[in-house]
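Tokens for LysE-type transporter. Go.
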Amino acid sequence: MEIQTLLLFSATAIPLICTPGPDILFISSQGLSGGISAAWKANVGVILGYIAHAILAALGLAAVVAASPLLFNTIKWIGVAYVAYLAIKMILSALKAGELKLQTVSSTAVITKGFLTSFLNPKGLLLYFAILPNFLHTSENVAIESLILSATFITSCIVIYGIVGVIFARMYRNSSYSDKKRRISEGVAGGMLTLAAVGLANS
């Protein structure tokens, strides 16, 4: 695969990655409410969701989703409901005063939430169906090309989402934490997830 093709694909994919959506807002909210560790765990979960999309696309299931409005909308609204659930849960926690406790959130729980957030967003799956094929050359090994492009996309996501997570985690780390600030950060994070749910619903 030519380097020009990779650069053009990256130039197409990176603006999509940077556009605020459920995935980037989830990672941001985790960084804001749980610090750098939570942000990276969320990033790992989101990336696992993208890897699952890549596998499904390779199996041809992306085409099935794209061709079935009912299936597409079912996946979409399950994703909306899940992100909305996370938002409501965080907002309710923010509204509840109590003793400040340093809680260690299960790595598996955060990674699972990140995975479901990205996996239940059908737009991620359709990226492999609608955009990636435009950069494949049928005269070459399509499977290898597809893997290279998928790896390029996923690597870009790791870097960009990682930077975003660190930025929001710094806000968490640079403040002397108190129950009041805990409630504020969780409220803001819940609001960000609400925006993610609304954006997903309107997509």
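The chain has one domain: 22-96+106-202.
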